[in-house]
Fold:
Amino acid sequence: MEDEYGRTRRRTVTAYVLLLLALTQVTVGAGALAVAGVSGADLVHYDMVIDLAVGLAYPVCGTVIALHRPRNPIGWLLIVYGLGHAFTGLSTGLAVEGLRAGWSPEALHVLTTIGRHTWIVASSTAFVFVFFLFPDGRLPGQRWRWALIAQLVASPLDIAYWARYDWGLYDGTGAQPSYFPVPPGWLPVLQRVVTVKACLVLAAVMAVMWLRYRRGGEQDRRRLLWLLAGVLPLLVSIMLQVFGFPPVYTSYGTLLLPVAIMIAVIRHELLDIRLVVSRGLLYGALTVGVVAAYVGLVTFLQSLLDPHPELLGPALISVVLAVSFEPARRLLQRTVDRALYGDRHDPVRAVSRIGERLAGGGVGAVSEAVGEGLRLPYAHLAAESGAPSGSWGTPGKLTHVVTLDYDGRRVGELVIGLRPGEQQVTPADLAVLELLAVPLAAALHATDLSRQLQLSRERIVAAREEERRRIRRDLHDGLGPTLAGAAFQADAVRNLLAFDPERAAGLLAELRAEIGGAVGEIRRLVDGLRPPDLDQLGLLGALRERSARLSWRADGTPIAIRVRAPELLPPLPAAVEVAAYRIATEALTNAARHARATRVDLRIEIGEGLRLEVCDDGSPVDGETAWRPGVGITSMQERAAELGGSCVVGRGRVEATLPLGEPP
Structure:
């Protein structure tokens, strides 16, 4: 029975058995070389140790993957690849010892023939398949299976060509292995074919990696960077061959690759792989560049300097390299950092690019822009108002919060995920985030204002339509039937006037009453549109009249209401008058009904706008809360906001500010 990762007893036993087989081959091969007394120079020259090293490193790392992720074929492929090299190393050790001990040529021939081909078979199949299936063990698409089939079909070419490269270890001995029969004249052609095939395979692998990097998430990209970190030593060693370094050392560049693959598959969060790849690319490129420059300058200067090239040439070359090293390092560092860390080295550029995304897609695109611009695993922009603002990536265990403040008020926060291996945000990232906080806070504030404006418009439209519906209903249900009845009664009076004057007089009296009721209904409708006291008494007179009506509480306690205002108010816009009257009357009503107040002060001041303040000395009892938010308080705040003003409500105090705008 398998668990969530696909582990079963059979798979576990199989992994350990294969590891034991690899360790046995490596141990026996290394022991045979030691018994044979092979010198260190021959070990390096004939590349005897690399097969044993690969046969140890790859099965160990592959077994770890197979035990933790048995469904992923990469672990098993690494084991197979290591076993192929392990048997090659075993055959080499036994053949060397057999030649010294005088074993039969037939046995040695069979041993070396098999040993020369196992590492090639494993390399052409298992090793190549690892790159196509990395990191999840699946191809990026069904069409790529033809690349694997083509590699399998063409693997005999690798066997026919590479098996002959044994560095002359068995020349002239009875241990000379057999190879695929290839006519001698065809070997140069075979070499070119194998080279072209290798280039095509490399191009296909690079295409697969590029597709995975573009289509994958942050997790897949970190895994691919781990693979790149493992390949870097191999790439550097291959480049150094161009400048005369022996190719035998290239094989040692593959020993870090299984470790990188193991970490990428199982523990890709171990540390910040971007930093590893950044430094690796930087110093690898510098190493190759310095070697290339040195070789080129030596060749060039020695062709020019005839007197003493052995002295003057190296001296000039050393000076040139010393002067050019630091500029080259800075240029390479900027290039690598931009590829791995985005624009964090240039905060102004980073903010500018994020500003472009902000202008094009609003605050919803900021999280993605921050994550991609700084190569962060996670970014989330949260508005204090609760409006949706978007997120990007997957949150990790460690995050950093940047508070966004506008005009001394918190408007939101930017949450970023730390890169794997980072315990705190780096100073370079912090510099960009602090610079970005100011425009982000302004953007959130503007977005919130726009949202509030839209909501206010929607409420105004809704209130207007509700008011129209109420007026239509009142006209249809109240005034309409009344006028219709009056018309019927007028017709009846006209018909009765000639032969029944008394009955006609009674109907006229009823008609007069009906018309009086219609007039009252019209007044009620008019009063609902605008308080009549404002037209009759003005704002101050209407407020004093209202104060007089509210001078007694329900329990009979008198309330002293004092109105303080200029003797004469300037002409006010009708909307400001209505808003001030409604806010003041609602505040006075709350003070009389809920605050248990005995004194209320109403103050009106005229400056750049109309400032209205209502204060009371209320003292709620029995756990009541003064100015508990409700419909009345919300109505006061909305009336002020509709005019572009503000209304602040607190315990025992209401303060509203209304802009005057243009006078009527």
